[in-house]
């Protein structure tokens, strides 16, 4: 594991260079088009060539989920940037959750969709290309070809996705994709003829990276062992950072899965399937020689899978021996035979076969292959013949080539890779896909490398999504046994509706603000740019509610295809334990990774500063912004700096209470980045509050008009906090319920509302003083007397005590002891009627009133 | 009071007896003596003592409610709505110490459980928490009491009852949000979700809990009652994160929660941060001890009289008649009046009755007015003056000297040298009975006063400062000194005279 990390570091530097001479150039635009690009890893001296029409992986937001695309054009623009034009394919994870249902079938992780969504940037930087892969077009009814190896590198496309619905690939597209496969083979051949580097690549690579080859061979040894998931994930990352095709590292897992899934599979049968796969693929093309040879090798490993593990290993290692060649010959013979029998079988069994068979078994294959003859015009028989010829050819090729590799394991991997790089579109691909002999589930498993998965990316149906780490465990409050009672009376109904948590259909009185925010975000979304907006307002003025409403509307619009899709992330300063946790939460929302705050900051900065070709715009709502304040303000700085970056596509809606927060607490550079798009939510006026309450109570006659008005006026005068208003109304319904004696329905009247208001707003002090004991009251009087005497609003207990004794004498009471006085003092202090010092000062403890003298006088005078 | 049925609660008073053993001692001794004479009477007496002890020490769980019917109804309705309708709420119970906040809440919860049990048996299935272990609560309480300001991390009660989960947090135990969150997770029994893995960080814990609570909704999730004892201490947590989140949940469509805070601070709302305040529903239930003296007498009677289920009926009859007589007695009423004027807090009434009740023995089976008077005297003694009683004459002389200094310099601080000089003046001019002690001896006496905290230095003594010149303050009032001298045994007359006037030697 550590070795690999070292590798990652070593190989992190990649050089992209053009392959061949410019095809044509545009003088005016000063662009040069090329037919291919070479990716050279400096440290390992490996090269990979990617050419037009190849299918490629492009760096995505998440290291584990690179995008799939087809390379359409390569050019160098005036600024000498290497650019590539691509046709996107989208993975299931990229399709919104709610749309996935439209598919009505299970999608394997290897399936991608021909992307017809408009608005994705198809012009990408060539440096984001990771490596080439295979994408095979399939007809809708077709089963996934079986691929035992290299699952990572092979994808299928059955349908296209235009952002709204899935469509079957048009014949045009289908043939184009097929064409690409075909063409690719040719190109590879030709390229091989021109530059031997393609063939030499494996050798070079091996020389370059001794360490790696060691790892690799180890991998091969481990073929039958299960691999630890963490190492898998690290592998995934490694690959990502390397940008080097490193395909077979993952195969062990796939193989292991395979064995687990179909332990009873016999070798012979497997061979049959394989050949069928081959037949299928080869039916319409002549396979190129070299790549097919390498591929064939891989095929062998897969064949071996069914047999005891020891043998394949040895087989792998002693590949260059003539004995193995013989063996192959034998296999190919079997292959020749099997198709016929199979086909026969199928025609009989066809009817009995189940529609769905997600366990990969022979049945699945049979079904598939039995269907294929119907779909493809060519006859099985000719295909089979062709294949057998082809295989013979390949074997001879292979024997010639074998001298090139010292270590078989590394050779096989590199050849595989080579194959990926150079010829993803040849019909061989299908054979290859048939090699990946695994269930959709297992393939998914192998694709899911890291425990850190985006929450939005739900796994395929049927994939058991067990929490990988305890951290991901999602806790749940137990359900209640008894269903919650529904409101029975008008008052209960009203109370339910008046609860702050009840979400009204519309937000009255915030239409303007709503529109402003909506327009802001909408325009940014359409432009595909970033921006900040600062929203301020005292608590309870509907800031967060309005923003949520805006987001809801925008999401609706995005769903209806009126707007480009976007991601919505919300963080709340109050719900963070530390400002830096903001990074962690944002990153978790966006990519599902769980990392430390410092690392998250780095990743986010990278994410927002580099051009993510397919990245959606992110709408980030930062609630309670002021709590993200740190001494250096780097959290706020970063938050507001990202939207200003060219490629960030980040829209920030920052919410806080104070209007002048940017001026007050932010440094100039932070405030400047926040910009001047500000909005302030004014406290609600009484009319607005009235409207809010009555809109919630629409259709429920629970309140007198005047009562609502009274509440609204009272609240508007105090704070304009809508929550308060609703709470008072809710309390009033309770009081009304208490008050009504008989069961007659009653509505909330002025008296109830007044009582509720008094309950909530009356100062508790006066009541507390009135209910205090006699000596406590005398003590307060003594304090007042002492204050008056000294002219200072502070006195020691000793001073007060003297007054106290005098007052007691006047009242004719026995004066209490000093201990009792101290007790009284601390009691009043605990209620915070008084502010007192620490008690250890005893008589010299200083005392202050926590309310005005007038209040005390008023409270005492009443009696 | 009826005997408790739960074994756990029967154990509780036993564990509680320890701190209260001091006042009980005489009765315990006499009880032993009496075993020979009259077993039956002794039995009754011990029964009485047990009942009274439970009533006065164990006031939270079993105490009766006095003068808070309205508050009771309010709280009951509030919690009922939470359980029945799944309505989220928040409320504060505010009242001075000893006004019965916890008693009220416990009563409401108890009644609510009973009501539910009667009405809906189905809900009982939901009882997935362990039954509340009474002794645990008591332990917690005791620690609370013993260590105000002390920081304990003791498991609090897990009050998971049939329908409602009930995290009980105390500001004295959960001293910061991190501890509080852990405690909530534990009490909600969510920690099993995470396995035995300890939470990585505070942030994760918070996210975890919020996630858990966000998932629920009004109609299907089990309502949660959060009880925050010593609510004012939670206010001082950083950013008031816990309160914000709890109140935020109570104001949003998530798992129904009710947050009940108990506090004695009247200014609690001013302490809440504006956002937290806005989210708080502003329901305040005030407990004010708003009864008058007549009710106080009634409470006194009720607290002292024996229940009908008392085994020895004739004794109960006699006891209750006696209590009735006592309540009409003038001296008893004076005693009670004095206490009532002093404080309306029922806890001090309990303490008074506890002191008086400990005088009950087999020889002295019924309470008398004198017992109450004695208890009242004990209850209201001045502790500092009591200390003065035990001082030596030299120490008394020093205190008198300080008193004179205070009078002369109007409360300005003094040092040992000044006190010594004052004392020397007295010795040389006036004292005939006093022996002229050497300075180190006087110094020793002075230090003793310092240890008794009758004298307090103004600042911490530094290494370099000479002890003689450290500035001090006297922590006694002159009236206290004079009173103490009145009762001081064998006080020399010249000292008494000197105490009365600093100029008496002229």
Oligomerization category of the chains in this entry: heterodimer
The global form of chain B is flat
Strand content of chain A: 5-15%
Mean model confidence by pLDDT of chain B: 75
CATH architecture of the domain at 14-185 in chain A: Roll
State the helical fraction of chain A: 40-55%
| Highest-level CATH class of the domain at 14-185 in chain A | Mainly Beta
- CATH fold-level label of the domain at 14-185 in chain A: SH3 type barrels
Low-confidence stretches of chain B: 1-37, 117-164
CATH architecture grouping of the largest domain in chain B: 3-Layer(aba) Sandwich
Q: What structural class do helix, strand and pairing data of chain B support?
A: alpha/beta
Question: End-to-end span of chain B in angstroms?
Answer: 67 Å
Please provide the count of β strands of chain A.
21
**What count of structural domains of chain B?**
3
Classified by CATH, the class of the largest domain in chain B is Alpha Beta
Estimated radius of gyration of chain A: 37 Å
According to CATH, the homologous superfamily of the domain at 14-185 in chain A is Bromo adjacent homology (BAH) domain
Describe this structure in words.
The complex is a heterodimer of chains A (863) and B (506). The N and C termini of chain A lie far apart (83 Å). By secondary structure, chain A is an alpha/beta fold. Among the domains of chain A are: 172 residues, Bromo adjacent homology (BAH) domain (SH3 type barrels, Roll), CATH 2.30.30; 171 residues, Rossmann fold; 76 residues, Orthogonal Bundle (Helicase, Ruva Protein, domain 3), CATH 1.10.8; 97 residues, Arc Repressor Mutant, subunit A. With 506 residues, chain B is of the alpha/beta class. Chain B has three domains: 183 residues, Rossmann fold (3-Layer(aba) Sandwich); 89 residues, no CATH class; 117 residues, Arc Repressor Mutant, subunit A (Orthogonal Bundle). Chain B is 56% helix and 6% strand. In chain B, the strands form two sheets. A five-stranded parallel sheet of chain B has the order 2-3-4-1-5, with helices on both faces. The chains are: A alpha/beta (863), B alpha/beta (506). At the A-B interface, helix 17, helix 20, helix 27, helix 29 and helix 30 of A face helix 5, helix 9, helix 11, helix 13 and strand 5 of B. Chain B: Belongs to the ORC4 family.
